[in-house]
Amino acid sequence: MHAVRLAGRETRLEEPFANDIYQIAEEIVTALLPIIQDKAFAFFGHSFGSYIAFVTALQLKEKYKMEPLHLFVSSASAPHSVFRLQIPDFNKLSEEQFRDHLLVFGGTPKHLIQDQDVLRQSIPLLKADATVMKKFDFDKPSEALLSRDITCFVGSEDVIKDIEGWKDLTSGKLDIRELPGNHFYLMVPDNEDFITNYIAKCLELASLDCF
């Protein structure tokens, strides 16, 4: 298992944020190619990460004829959906409005949101992600772009709509799994266990179909 670590955070804190999602995907593809060469692989992405996983899968297929066994997306409307979550212009939000936005999304403990230092550290990162998402404009394709199955996980109390739209992107099957919780439902241990077990089972079956 390999986790994607984006520029501008964690051990890459000193690196400038990416300008657009295609730049992010290209960087991921470059890093992954030596690892996944001649191996089966799959992608999982949550929220913003769902779109990164999708665009990365597209680049791998278009440029290298490689496709993930399965694409798992979480808390994300289809990229071409008119119901895709509208990202506010964080540059125009006051600190109080920014705090309210985090509370609505859920997943961040309230005591951290109220912490001025934590909030000020989070603002540049969220602004960078919002900028990338605002620039990501994706039209509904005339035909399926992928051929493998897609699974969409979503919280029962999430504001995300049009999960079904992901079916437009693949000739494979679409499976939707709703779990209790909000946008960050996957932080609940029982939900995390379900997702882990579900992915493992899907990959076992997908691997068998390849031989």
From TrEMBL:
> Which EC numbers characterise this protein's activity in its record?
3.1.2.14
Highest taxon of the source?
Eukaryota
Q: Indicate the secretion signal residues.
A: none
Q: Which SUPFAM superfamilies match?
A: alpha/beta-Hydrolases (SSF53474)
Q: Where in this chain does the record put each Thioesterase domain? A: 1-199
Q: Which Pfam families match?
A: Thioesterase
Q: What class of enzyme is it?
A: hydrolase
Entry similarity comment: Belongs to the thioesterase family.
Which protein, by its recorded name, is this?
Answer: oleoyl-[acyl-carrier-protein] hydrolase
Instruction: State the species of origin.
Output: Apodemus speciosus (Large Japanese field mouse)
